[in-house]
Amino acid sequence: KTLLREKAESEQNMSELDALKAMGDAGPIIIRQVTSTDRKLEVRERMKRRYAHKNYPDEFPFRCKCIVVFQKLDGVDVILFALYVYEHDAKNPAPNTRTVYVSYLDSVHFMRPRKLRTFVYHEILISYLDYARQRGFATAHIWACPPLKGDDYIFYAKPEDQKTPKDGRLRQWYIDMLVECQKRDIVGKVTNMYDLYFANEKLDATAVPYLEGDYFPGEAENIIKDIEEGGSKKGGSSSKKSKKKRNGSSSSSSSGTSNKTKSKSKAGRSGTRSGSNDEDEVEMPEPSYKDGGRDQVMVKLGDTIQPMKESFIVAFLNWKGAKEEDMVVPKEITEYREKAKKEKEESGKDPTADDVLSSALADEASSSSSNNRKRDANGNIRAAGSNSSSTTATDKNGQLVKIADDDIDEMDCEFFNNRQAFLNLCRGNHYQFDELRRSKHTSMMVLWHLHNRGAPKFVQQCASCNREILTGTRHHCNVCTDFDLCDECFKNPNTDRGACNHKLDAIPVEGEKESQSSSSGFTEAQRKERQKNIKLHIQLIEHASRCKSSSCKSSNCAKMKSYLKHGQTCKLKTIGGCKICKRIWTLLRIHANQCKSSNCPIPQCIAIRERIRQLTKQQQAMDDRRRQEMNRHYRHGMTESR
C-alpha cells in the first residue's frame, strides 16, 4: 500500500514550492558531472560506401558527458540517477551540426521522499536543455525506448519491485518534460524524426543525424544490406528473364501465322507498345536516388518507423539563431506564457517562494550568454566575461583548487566514459543496486574509484582472510591460479595456504595519488603546457616504435625505447602499481584513441583499440536488441490490427 500511495503521489505534477517543502524533510541532493571527454563515432561501412558520392563524413566527433545524482541517505551518499548526453557542436559536419542527443538515463527508486523523483529528474533535463540552447545547440534528439527484460542501461541489478516503464509511459514522461520546457520558453516546436525527415521525399539518408546508440545507424545499415543483396539477386533474375524472352522470341518467329496473329492482338491491347520489340516488354526501373529518384533507404526506413514515430522525439531549442518556424508552439502553451507574464506584471503582492523560484528560472531562461550560467565554488553565477577555465577557489581545508570548465577541460574517468564500461565495472565487482544497503556500498566504492582513478578497478582478494587487497603489499603466486595473500596473512606463520607451497612475489599496491589532483590545481597556461608535453611524448613514442637505428640522433629515443622495453618485462605492471607502466599506458591509450593504422608498430596499440571495439560491440549489441524488439512489437501490433 505504501508503494502504491507513493507511486500515485509521484505521478502528480508537483510545483516548485511543494518540492521545496518536501526537500526539507529529506537528505540533500547532490548533482555531479563525472566525465566530459571528446569521442568520435565512426560511420558504418555500408552507409559510408553508399553515400560516398555526397562526401558523407567518415566520422562524427562529439563530447560525451555523464551527470550523476546522489542523495545523502542515513548519512551516506547514494547514487540514484545517471544521465549520458552527447554534444555535437557547431564545428561538427552536417547533419549532426548543433545537435544534442540524450543517450541513456537510468535510476533507482530509493529517493526520499519517492514522489520527488519525477520532479528532480525533469528539472535536471530541463536545466540541461536550457544550458545547451544557451551554448548554441539547435536540436535535442531523444529515443524513448525502455530496456528489455534482463538488460541494464547503467545500474547493475536494480530492485525487483522497481518496474520498467512501457514505451508509451516513458514517451509521455519525456513529453511532459518537454511541455514544461515549452512553458519556460526553452524549447519551441516538438516533433518526431518521421515527420521531420522521412515525410519529405526530397531528403535522403544523409539528412538524418547519425548519433551513437540511436535507432537510425543500425537500422540504416541493415536496410542498405538488404537493398544491396536484394538488388544483386533481382539483377540476376532479370538477366535470366531476358534470356528466356530472347529464346521465346526466336522460337515464335519460326512458328505459324496463328502465333503472329496472337502477338498482333497483344500489341493492339498494349496501346503504343510494339509487340515485335521484346525489350519494350521489360519494365523500366525507377530512377535511382543518384539520378533524382527517391532514396530507397528513406522509403524502407520510413515505412518501418512510421507506426512508432512518436518514440523518436526531436525538440527545437530556443537558441539565438533559431528560426521562427521552429519556435511554433501549441495554442495552450502560448496562452500559458501570456497568462504567466500578465500575472507577473499585475501582481503587486510580495512574492512567495514559488514566485521567486519561477522568476529565477525565467530570468535564467532569458539569458543568452553561456558564461552567465557558469558558477563558482559556492554555486553563485559568475560574472559575464569571466574566464571560467582559469577560475580557482579554496576548499574547506584552505587548499587551492581549480573549477573545471566541462566544455573545455577533459574530465577523463575510465569507467564512467561510457555506459558499458561502468556496467562492466559493477558486474565484475558485484556492485549491485537491488537493495538500499547494497546501493550504499556500491556508491561508496564508486566514489572511492572516482577519487582514486589510478587504482586498480578489479582488485585481488586474499586467499586466507578473503579481504580485498587495496593498499600495502600483496604476495602473488605465479604458479597457482588467482592466489594472493595480504601482507598481514603472509607474515602470519599460522596462515593456511591450502595447496600452495610456492614462492610468493611481493607486489606493492597503491592508488595513483597524482590522479587525485591530476589537473585540479593547474592554471590555464599550465594546462596548455601539460597538453603540449603529452603531445610531444606521444610523438616520441611513435618515433621510438618505428626507429630501428642504434645511433638515433634523437636524444630521448633510446630512453623511450627502454621504457617501452620495460613494459614488456615488468612484473608489477599497471595493476601492481608500477609508475612507469602507468604513465606509458596512459600515453598509449591516448594514442590508440586517435590511431587508425591497421598495422601500427606501437606496442599494445592494436590491443587497446580492440578492447575499445569490444566495448562498442557490447553497447551496439544491446542497442540492436532494443531496435529488433521494438520492430517486432510494432509489427506484431500492426498484424493484429489487420
Characterization of the model:
- The protein is an alpha+beta fold and 642 residues long.
- 44% of the residues lie in helices and 14% in strands.
- It has helices at 2-11, 16-23, 45-50, 116-134, 167-183, 193-198, 215-253, 257-269, 296-305, 331-346, 353-366, 419-429, 436-451, 487-491, 524-546, 557-569, 573-576, 579-594, 605-641; strands at 29-42, 59-73, 76-88, 99-107, 139-143, 187-192, 312-317, 392-394, 400-402, 472-477, 484-486, 504-509.
- A seven-stranded mixed β-sheet has the order 1-2-3-4-5-7-6, sandwiched between helices. Strands 11-10-12 form a three-stranded antiparallel β-sheet. A two-stranded antiparallel ribbon has the order 8-9.
- It starts with a helix and ends with a helix.
- Residues 6-11, 234-284, 350-354, 364-372 and 511-521 have low confidence and may be disordered.
Features:
642 residues, 3-stranded antiparallel sheet
Structural class: alpha+beta
Average pLDDT, rounded to a whole number, is 78
How many helical elements?
19
Shape: globular
Sheet with the most strands?
A: 7 strands, mixed
In the predicted model, the low-confidence regions spanning at least 5 consecutive residues are 6-11, 234-284, 350-354, 364-372, 511-521
SSE inventory with pairings:
Elements: H1 2-11, H2 16-23, E1 29-42, H3 45-50, E2 59-73, E3 76-88, E4 99-107, H4 116-134, E5 139-143, H5 167-183, E6 187-192, H6 193-198, H7 215-253, H8 257-269, H9 296-305, E7 312-317, H10 331-346, H11 353-366, E8 392-394, E9 400-402, H12 419-429, H13 436-451, E10 472-477, E11 484-486, H14 487-491, E12 504-509, H15 524-546, H16 557-569, H17 573-576, H18 579-594, H19 605-641
Parallel strand pairs: 4-5
Antiparallel strand pairs: 1-2, 2-3, 3-4, 5-7, 6-7, 8-9, 10-11, 10-12
Helix pairs in contact: 4-5, 7-9, 15-16, 15-18, 18-19
